[in-house]
Amino acid sequence: MCGRFTLRRPEKIKIERVSALDFEGTGPRYNVAPSQNILGVIQTNDERHALQFQWGLIPSWSREPKGFINARAETVAEKPSFRDSFRRRRCLIPADGFYEWRREGRTKQPFYFQMKDESVFAFAGLWDTWGNEGDKVASCAIITTTPNELVGSVHDRMPVILRPSDFDTWLGDEADTDELHELLAPFPTDYMQGYPVGLGVNNPGVDEPRLIARD
What we know:
Elements: E1 5-7, E2 29-32, E3 37-44, E4 47-55, E5 70-72, H1 83-88, E6 90-95, E7 97-104, E8 107-115, E9 121-132, E10 135-145, H2 149-152, E11 158-159, E12 161-162, H3 167-171, H4 177-182, E13 192-196
């Protein structure tokens, strides 16, 4: 799963047809956790917009605001909670790193993963809008897939990271299910690095640069 990530330098986000002004006011974050608001980019009628989503997708038909933070690539097109969003409401979720945990005896050791050049990238995401008695919640989930060799040494899943060349396909309306599924592959190990970090990331109330320091 993907349960924590970072967006340390939102000013470095580069997504075509989205103004840098859309990202103004987004401060650095070192411990983005489920149920918090996160940044997402959607496309409607060939126009792209950056919006705030609650992390934890609540299907529009749900009777209660119970969210799913992740969707599995293998079943995302069939599961009722995600299939309509997979067809119609896909998004990009900017990030520049993520955490995974490896069990070591009775404890879980957190690891931090990022690109070797520490650049900003984008997760493959889904979104939906849920409403009840006048209240509306726009929410999203991150799609996960089997891990590459690097992440696989720590965990059995990793978030889907999209290449910039895939953004048009992912956000557009013309791709079929097979084309979309081709994008949901593990990101190549050669471009990534990872290392152990301290246990401070376990507390979602802590959001400080020290969280990504090598342990």
